[in-house]
Amino acid sequence: MTSKPIDTSRPHPARMYDYYLGGKDSYPVDEEAAERVISFLPAIRTAARTNRSFMNRAARLLAERGVTQFLDIGTGIPTEPNLHQVVQAVNPRARVVYVDNDPIVLRHAEALLRSTPEGATKYIEADVREPEKITESAKEILDFEEPVALSLVALLHFVSDEYRPYELVNNLLAPLASGSFLMLSHVTGDFDPAGWAKAVDIYRKSGVPAQVRSRDEVARFFTGLDLIQPGVEVVTNWHPEPDQEFADEQVPLYVGVAQKP
């Protein structure tokens, strides 16, 4: 795999997210921007950690329901357990395609996104705003005649309205077989509008088209799909683990999983 050079002149959301998680794969420009966000929005660290937990729970739930194919767009810097590790622990034959647009993610993917011998993983360097490119490349290891779980976890708040995010999601879902799933998480300004307005401003000034959305706006991504109970919920209320760490916190993150009829 080849990659464009890493741009360290401006922050990148994948590296900022890694910093929120306590990772080490960021540059000073990312850390400075992240610390500015944290200074007036400390809940963002909790949102990042609960988001990872949601991804694990949702992927495991779908694997246990028999889904063996996953298309994960906006992968981010690998953080164990990665999606393929979660689903291949349920079914070693599961196949996972990862997609991200940050070259640092590609460098980690080469070393860390390794499949079981029975299954398969593939990494695509692409942007969610390139649905046709993603679909065609994913078809190299995914069978679109069979159900696929489309994972858009902590991604769509980096796709502002001018890029037609609802249309993008529909374009990604359209070629997937009946019985496929959408698993999605999205930050919201519902609980702290002023704090999130400042956060969005930092991202936008860094060249990232960020936009937070309300519960109704997040629910709109699931139009025409059959939501798994409990529907679109705050992350801590969606199939919580018995020993959930953040049960009493108001986490600014909506999540949901739904099936294509």
TrEMBL record:
The keyword Methyltransferase applies. GO terms for molecular function: methyltransferase activity. Keywords: Methyltransferase, Transferase. SUPFAM superfamilies: S-adenosyl-L-methionine-dependent methyltransferases (SSF53335). It comes from the Bacteria. InterPro entries: SAM-dependent_MTases_sf, SAM_dep_MeTrfase_SAV2177_type. One of its GO terms (biological process) is methylation. This is SAM-dependent methyltransferase. It comes from Streptomyces achromogenes.
